[in-house]
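Researcher: For the annotation table, I need structure tokens for Transposable element Tc1 transposase. Please keep the output clean. Sequence:
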Amino acid sequence: MPGKRAGRHFSQLSEFERGLIIGMKTAGLSTHRVAGQVDRSEWAVRNCWEQWTREGTLVRKTGSGATRKTTRREDRRIVRQALVYPTVTRSTIRADVGNQLFVPQKFYKHLAEANLKSKRPFRALHLTPEHRKLRLQWYQAR
């Protein structure tokens, strides 16, 4: 597709690119031309320019969502505890890490981020139709 820029439309604008955009727009260039010069979408240029005219700043807004209750060191410790001692309980790890702020759901999130999942004991094989038929024959014979 001609005219499309591949791969650059989801990455964040750097401070340098933001400065270029503001400088070019202040010089009177069109949004289309500025987007072509910095190799970004017109929406990115327009949003950057609107933020500059509205707020007078180029600072990126912080992301949404809750702040993390654990540090990176605590995250690594949680994962290491789960790897070294697979049978250890959640409350034991929580006491060992020393952070009483994070909730049990976040504990599982930390383990999922490390690609660890809970291990459920194997209960029984699912019966295939052949197994069911053989089991019924055995039952009827007795």
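Researcher: And a one-line annotation?
Model: The first helix runs from residue 15 to 26.
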